[in-house]
Design brief:
- The protein folds into 2 domains: 132 residues, Beta Polymerase, domain 2, CATH 3.30.460; 142 residues, Nucleotidyltransferases  domain 2 (Four Helix Bundle (Hemerythrin (Met), subunit A), Up-down Bundle).
- The chain contains 9 helices and 6 strands, in the order αββαβββαβαααααα.
- By secondary structure, it is of the alpha+beta class.
- Helix 4 packs antiparallel against helix 8 and helix 4 runs parallel beside helix 9.
- The protein has a 6-stranded mixed sheet, covered by helices on one side.
- The chain is 46% helix and 14% strand.
């Protein structure tokens, strides 16, 4: 596997030799000082270029980066969202490295819109703004207000009735979607707020909660892991009850921290409904 230095040297060498490329930026996890380094991190690269069409009329120019296992070009796929004229090459190579390369038209507004994890690697013309030192502050946990907290609790408990009915009707795909998209989204918000109350809100829990294990106690993380299930309905019921118990614990703690009111009656009502549906199955 090519090393990080070898990959960075290649990325910059291609840019230096091509007059159409005027600057090179990197962002994402490799620019984040708080992300542990490993061999699976992508190279999130932006080439600031003068003429995108000259690149995209013949895509073979990207072969210089190495032999690929797979390529994705989002702007050539269904429903492209490309208001700024960017063009992306997502490249996974035989040695396991990955480059997500964006071609960005040379415009002032394109240089000013980058997030707080942007680092300049090359600037041939002195056109790139002085970005502040990289930080993940744009992704820090945010404190809830009371309405947001209440809405999270209400929707968590309410949507469990849909999952229960789906089990009773043997609608597995509906059940899994309801639990892992809708209900889990509310659970993740509550986990994030709980982590914030314990460790401060000046941190990120990672995309989709990928750093939960870092910040939850072993006991709570074991409870969280139990909220995932296989496709057997018995296991799904166990996961639902694990969700309920964990949400209850965290929601009470968050409410106490912020001085919010936890509406226990909503939990009690939904738990009663879950028991009813479960008993009807037997």
């Amino acid at each position: 596997m090519r090393t990080e230095k070898e990959m960075m040297d290649l990325i910059l060498d291609v840019a230096k030799r091509d007059e159409r490329v005027r600057a090179v930026l990197i962002n994402g996890s490799k620019a984040n000082p708080n992300v542990p380094k490993d061999i699976y991190q992508d190279f999130d690269i932006a080439y600031i270029v003068t003429d995108i069409d000259s690149f995209t009329k013949d895509h073979s120019w990207i072969n210089v980066f190495g032999n690929r296992l797979m390529l994705q070009m989002p702007e050539t796929m269904r429903y492209p969202d490309n208001p700024d004229g960017h063009f992306g090459y997502l490249m996974l190579f035989e040695d396991g490295n990955r480059i997500d390369l964006s071609l960005v038209p040379l415009k002032t507004e394109n240089l000013e819109q980058y997030d707080c994890l942007t680092v300049t690697l090359l600037d041939k013309d002195g056109i790139v703004p002085d970005y502040p030192p990289p930080t993940d502050k744009d992704f820090w946990l945010k404190e809830p207000d009371e309405l947001f907290y209440y809405s999270c609790c209400n929707n968590f408990w309410w949507c469990l009735n849909n999952a229960a009915k789906g089990i009773a009707r043997d609608e597995l795909s509906y059940v899994m979607n309801m639990l892992n998209d809708v209900v889990r989204s509310e659970l993740h918000d509550m986990v994030g707020w709980y982590i914030g109350t314990q460790h401060g809100f000046n941190l990120s829990a990672g995309k989709n909660g990928k750093y939960f294990k870092r910040y939850l106690s072993p006991e709570l993380y074991t409870q969280y892991a139990a909220t995932y299930s296989g496709s057997d309905y018995y296991d799904i019921w166990k996961a639902i009850y694990a969700m309920c118990d964990l949400f209850h614990t965290l929601a009470l703690s968050v409410a106490a921290h912020f001085g919010f009111t936890y509406r226990q009656n909503e939990e009690d009502g939904m738990r009663a409904y879950l028991r009813m549906v479960r008993e009807n199955e037997c």
